[in-house]
Amino acid sequence: MDKPYTFEDYRKIVETLRSEEGCPWDRAQTHESLKPCMINEMTEAVAAVDLLRETRDWDNLCEELGDLLLLILLQSQIAKEEGYFSLDDVIQKAAEKMVRRHPHVFPDEDGKKGAPDWNAIKEREKAGKTPEQRAFAKNAEKKAAEEVCRHLQEEYCCCLNST
Fold it and tell me: Residues 6 or more apart from 87 whose CB is under 8 A from it?
């Protein structure tokens, strides 16, 4: 390892890659164009976990997790450039969700820990959504799953059952 990098260093690297002085490939990426990369890198990360059983290749898993992290930073940087949200917003929402979903670990404002009632937690999270919004999200997830299956079938020539 030549130079130790921090998370903030990595964030700036991705920002630079997307800048005018950066890389043409990175600058050209969009949320849509990165979808195949997300599927491929997720597949490679899953494979890296599977390989651990046989090879104990922790470096490979570390590398593949880094590839996933890159895609999160790229997607967040694109959204920031478009004025929608930043990586800090992604981190904030993820942290809030983990705390909210683990009341048995993180106390509330009164310092009390609660029982992990997953169904109640999920219902509270859905409370702000209309039935139409929930149906639209469910349909989008189904379409995304179909897209992932198609991509994997094309990329890896595997036989997948379509439903």
Answer: 11, 72, 73, 76, 77, 80
How many CB atoms neighbour CB 55 within 10 A? 12
Q: Which positions of the chain have pLDDT values less than 50?
A: 163
Can you give the pTM of this predicted structure?
0.82
Q: Which amino acid is at 130?
A: T
Q: Residues with Cβ < 8 Å from 44, sequence gap 6 or more?
A: 64, 67
